[in-house]
């Protein structure tokens, strides 16, 4: 299936850039970007050789979002390509996403992630665009009752931080929306821990300030930008005492979105469906550090500090449902994640 009429919301910055990158390669069309770093977009243009234009708007500004949809749908507004038809579906990536920060700034996270999403859904509803691919998270599962995590695991009850709760709340809103209006179709993709970079080195995770995620933190220590890695806790009930996570290469994650979009746009799909995107195995913080040292040939000094608020000991996926129903599975291994 060739898909060329997909609106991307919140696409610039970190793994969102990868989504935009892959969509361009298969002819997807981006519509809207939230308040993110436009340098990432420039790098996408360099890799693809395509001249891109995009419209920047805050997802909290509903009137501006509505204007973009109105223009896009009625005048075939030029953003990345000349659009010739109506929008088929929306891919919603716009969200704040740092677990620790969300504990300190809960109202900001609920306002942006929940209220902003409602704005988008209302605008979509108004313009009769009712197919949505939602960027969710494994944090909706909270503290696991059983591992590996399947899509049937309870969500919401064990959430340990406002970020995870905001993702859970939006999923519940979408379930209610689909129940109330059968013309809506939604796929929610529950990411585990995206890592890695494009082989060109132009696109990856290189945040300003102290990184919230492990891999860019390790990379900054490796190149001398930081003296050591802060390891948040070594007293978890895990083999080496550090937290265990399911790390997935960003390019595998991007392909998962393509496969899910094909499912969403198929005539037989309806309702709400969630899929895990992960590798199905867990690595501890110190295991990932060792793997990075072996891949880079550089020693990563680290310091054990106190646990970070909102973190849990274990989290890894059972992604077999995505394999069965989407034809997707993670291909890239640990070595490629560290390169």
TrEMBL record:
Question: So which residues are the signal peptide here?
Answer: none
For this chain, the family text in UniProt reads: Belongs to the NAD(P)-dependent epimerase/dehydratase family.
Q: Which cofactor does it need?
A: NAD(+)
User: Which terms in the Gene Ontology molecular function aspect does this entry carry?
Assistant: UDP-glucose 4-epimerase activity; UDP-N-acetylglucosamine 4-epimerase activity
The name of this protein is UDP-glucose 4-epimerase
GO BP terms: galactose catabolic process via UDP-galactose, Leloir pathway
- Sorted alphabetically, which keywords does the UniProt record give? Carbohydrate metabolism, Galactose metabolism, Isomerase, NAD
Q: What is its EC number?
A: 5.1.3.2
* Subunit note: Homodimer.
Enzymatic reactions: UDP-N-acetyl-alpha-D-glucosamine = UDP-N-acetyl-alpha-D-galactosamine; UDP-alpha-D-glucose = UDP-alpha-D-galactose
Q: Name one Pfam family in it.
A: GDP_Man_Dehyd
Q: Which InterPro entries has this protein been placed in?
A: NAD(P)-bd_dom (IPR016040), NAD(P)-bd_dom_sf (IPR036291), UDP_G4E (IPR005886)
């Amino acid at each position: 299936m060739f898909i060329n009429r997909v609106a991307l919301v919140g696409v610039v910055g970190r793994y969102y850039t990868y989504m935009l990158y892959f969509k361009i390669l298969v002819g997807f069309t981006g519509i809207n970007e939230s308040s993110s770093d436009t340098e990432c977009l420039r790098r996408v243009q360099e890799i693809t050789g395509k001249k891109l234009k995009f419209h920047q708007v805050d997802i909290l500004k509903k009137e501006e979002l509505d204007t973009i949809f109105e223009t896009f749908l009625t005048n075939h507004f030029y953003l990345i390509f000349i659009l010739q038809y109506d929008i088929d579906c929306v891919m919603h990536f716009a969200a704040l996403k740092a677990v620790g920060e969300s504990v300190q700034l809960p109202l900001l996270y609920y306002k942006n992630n929940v209220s902003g999403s409602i704005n988008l859904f209302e605008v979509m509803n108004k313009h009769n665009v009712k197919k949505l691919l939602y960027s969710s998270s494994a944090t909706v599962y909270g503290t696991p009752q059983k591992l590996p995590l399947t899509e049937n695991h309870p969500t919401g009850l064990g959430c340990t931080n406002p970020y995870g709760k905001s993702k859970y709340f939006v999923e519940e809103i979408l379930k209610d929306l689909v129940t109330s209006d059968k013309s809506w179709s939604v796929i929610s993709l529950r990411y585990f821990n995206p890592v890695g970079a494009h082989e060109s080195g132009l696109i990856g995770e290189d945040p300003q300030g102290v990184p919230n995620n492990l891999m860019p933190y390790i990379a900054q220590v490796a190149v001398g930008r930081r003296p050591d890695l802060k390891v948040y806790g070594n007293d978890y009930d895990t083999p080496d005492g550090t937290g265990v996570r399911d790390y997935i290469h960003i390019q595998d994650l991007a392909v998962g979105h393509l496969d899910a979009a094909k499912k969403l746009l198929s005539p037989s799909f309806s309702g709400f469906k969630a899929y895990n995107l992960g590798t199905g195995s867990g690595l501890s913080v110190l295991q990932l550090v060792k793997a990075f040292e072996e891949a880079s040939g550089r020693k990563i000094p680290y310091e054990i500090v106190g646990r970070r608020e909102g973190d849990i000991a274990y989290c890894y996926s059972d992604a077999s449902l995505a394999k069965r129903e989407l034809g997707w599975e993670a291909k890239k291994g640990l070595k490629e994640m560290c390169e």
